[in-house]
Model the fold of this input.
Amino acid sequence: MRTSLRLGAATALTLLITASAAYAENIKIAYIDPLSGPFAATGTNGLHQYEFAAEKLVNEEGGVLGGMNFEIVAFDNKISPKESLIQLQVAIDQGIRYIVQGNSSGVANALTDAIEKHNRRNPDNRVLFLNYSAVDPALTNDKCNFWHFRFDAHADIKMDALTDVIAENEDIKKVYIIGQDYSFGKAVAAAAVSFLGEKRPDIEIVGNELHPIGKVKDFTPYARKVTASEADAVITGNWGADMLGLGKSIIENGFDGPIYTYYAAADGITAAFGESGKGTLKLVAEGGDNPPDKEKAQEYIRAFKEKYPDGNLSQSRITNVVEMLAQAINEAGTADDVVAVANKLEGMTFSDGLWSGELYMRPQDHQLIQDVHIYGHTDVEAPFDFDNSGYGLKIEDTITNASADIDTTCEMERP
Amino acid sequence: MTDDITTDPTRPSQRMRAGSMVIGKLPWILAALFLIILPVIFPSNSAITIMNQMSITMVFALAYNMLLGQGGMLSFGHAVYMGVGGFACVHLMNVAGFFDYLPLPFLPLFGGLGGMALAIIVGSFSTRSAGTIFAMISLGIGELVAACSVIIVVFFGGEEGVSADRTLGMPFFGIEFLYQREVYYLIAFWLLLSAILMYLFSRTPMGRMANAVRDNPERAEFLGYSSRWVRFYSFVVSGFFAGVAGGLFAINYEILTEENLNLTTSGTILLVTFLGGVGHFFGPIIGTVVFTLVQTVLSLETELWGFYAGLLFLATVMFFPGGIAGLIMMHAPAIRLGKAGRLIMPYLICFVPAFFAVLGVAALIEMVFHVRHASVGDEEMSLYWMTFDSHALLPWVVAVAVTAVALALTRRAAPALRAAWNDANTPEGGSA
Amino acid sequence: MELIFVNLIDGLVTGLLLFMLSAGLTLIFSMMGVLNFAHASFYMLGAYFGYQISLYTGFWGGLVLAPIIVGVAGAGVERYGLRRVHQYGHVPELIFTFGLALLIEEIVQFIWGKNQVSYGIPEVLQFTAFSIAGNSIPAYKVFMIFISVAIFLGLLYVLTRTRIGMIIQAALSYPKTVEALGHNVPLVFMGVFGAGTALAGVAGVIAGPVLGTFPGMAFVLGSIIFVTIVIGGLGSLWGALIASLLIGWITTFAKSYNLEMADLLTALGFEKPEPIWDSAWRDLWTVTSPQIADILPYMLMVLILIFRPRGLFGKRDV
Done:
């Protein structure tokens, strides 16, 4: 546990400043995500997955560059952009060259902007930003930069995959789109409308609305509207408590068609849906099946659950980040020159990872191209379930190398 | 001890009385020198970042205290004025034709004007009465503006906010503000300037009347002052300085988001100000230093920082309603009597064990938390640079023993401290 | 037409839940002059205690025991915390409850963790009571309505028909006189605070299973209950009831019907700028009622405070 409580403000400040000298032999990766506050559960679970991945996949395999270890250093950003920028500065001062972050596109936008400015102004200690989960398409389009790499499929790619599946389902005639009122919710809605219009112009969009994010106490009125519209399927980008509230209300109100979502698993949500979500909740994500195809991955999950019985191995992209970074550092022969590492990372194809399928870091925009799956919420035997509930995700459809040719507006400036 | 600050329980405002102490020129000069050498003592970028954050919060907290401490107006939505000032600045920074001709150090002025403009609009109806009506209107407006920030994307940029680049401004004597240190001096300058101006405002007849209206609006009315307009002017001036803080935020972080407007930020500034002490001009400054260290430094060390911050805050409200500044100023009589020296030994005898008692209790809390929430098999925890097994008996025995002994010592020393306190506050030969 | 009826029921459930919280809050405020910022935190404690007890005794044990525990905790807070701060005045009291709310959230995370706990509705009530035009009304909602109405009637009876109620009513207006008559006013204060928080606890126990039991649940509900009592008029039980129902229905209907700002603006004679995505006013034109449903109560509150500071049913200014 990293909890070493040091009281005394002056001591702490001095320590903070001198801490940079210690542990020079490790390659440190700053994990900047919420560890306190309402999103702490997700952040803490992600941290465990990083620590576990660094330990199992890199350090126990002999490290990188002939014996250097990965060390994950946690920074609590309280999901606040301001606090993230402060912690970024602290991380850079400690000599950290690699930043990973994923929760909230708002934070990711602030970080990528700040890192781009920092690298321009301080060419001596540049850093890389490995974004493992923020899916705002703009990050690899208008706002792309050389220092940012995204390991998750972005919102449009996922919607592309989702609508491929919807398009094949002849039973779906009417679709209801509902989401949180902010950039991601709007992006999901816009992508759904445009892709559906392209692939299945006959589908009628019977509802397209936004609700305030994190403020709705009771979703029943929205659920009534969904029922009243006689929709065959619902598409939503909701996450967290908003996903749970919306999904539960819709199901309780007697809706039995599919609810297509982005984030409706783990962190207590799978357990809370339980039996009621079966056959209804469909999730679009990257990663492996449950149980995964490779024996190695099954072992990995078992070991993880042994160490963190209450945790979930819910973000398979985290292992991709760790493994691909290790390979890039090894190929570049240095961990200090981030430009060399970035050059190895872009254009990398990686296929012997933990999960099946091939990964390709597209050089034009630093977007990882990978298989995207549509999962169904159903019974899954332990330890491959989520929240120890006996329920989990199983692959129902797979889009190989999803959206490999999707357009990007990125005009990357290279150093 | 609290009785010293609360002269009359039926008149709460007594406790909030602004310090009668007049600050001369010397403290300001010392403060300026201190601000100048600070980056030399702490040269690293992260220390400077934290100091920048502190300075910005100080300006904001001082502005907030103009309302709470001097005007007796409790606002639950003051972040809105800082936020709007900041957003105004970010948008100005993005207007290429304008920003090219504006040296960056003048930018906060526009932030102030932005905050002030909003304060004029809101103040025109919210300052008609003080007390609960004012507090609830501020809460409502705060919630409305925060909600608008995700709806009105044109101005607030949605949840990802609006960003800008400070280096695009006109170079100021060749300085482009590429580095944190240059930004630090800009912010420090504005901090000093704002603090001096706010202090001078509290000395004007207007500032005095704010105190009078806070303490007894009826009497102020009889004297011929409209308490409403006095509140309005305080509110507008406070909005201006909050906007300046917003402008400084825009310069330092180069981004403003929904977070700058929401109720959490408004609540935090209330906490900061009250922790430092609303009754004294320098109270919010102390509160800012303490709170920023807790939030930024302690949170690196423990997940439970919010828990400790909450405890600290509650203890302050319950036992030292004058805040930390009030606690310091309690010693003024003893110093004036020249007997402060007599307190040092009793303080040491009492507070050294008390310090260890606090550490011991914190250790127990951390250990309970570790046993409850750490992953299975991870029985090793480190605390105070010691690493041990949280599931073994020994560390628990040690922690409990240290806490118990320290508490006992503190208790035993308390009567002597009380006696010393009474002695130090009693004029020679007089009775208490 | 059927949808209107369904919405009326949904709004009623939301409104009555709000009422259970605001009833206690308004009593506490009118008696002690304290806006209890931690009120929603006691609601959260109710949900968590209900969850914890339900693990051993099932839901019904939690429904009985949890509010009692919350009430005792509330009385303890009044006795050992608020009473001490009371001497410093109202602002520190308010700030005290504000800090308490933060602390309770931290304590809840400390004990139960940060995830949502799986607190579900009891199996006896897991069926559909009736349906209207394909919309099912779960039995649990009917149960919630009955509990809230029973509590309202009980409160009304205690406050207007019993001796203790008379003392409370008198202490509301003339605390000094009541004290002079030999009643122990501090005890009455403690009792009212305990009872008010216990009511919040009841609300937590029955709302936890439907609205989710997680550390942020107090924050979500936090300020809306102030809005309720301010709109209703401080100290008025009827005001709290009417305002709660009003808010329940306003938000439900605003969510259910897509009223668009564009229609309103056109009706007012404005012309829609074209193309809309390029206009500085695009966000205003595209606002719909579900987007702003949950902030409507705040607008209402600000308007009421400006034009009728005593609220709908209040006898004196806030």
In short: DSSP finds twelve helices and 15 strands in chain A. The first helix of chain A runs from residue 9 to 18.
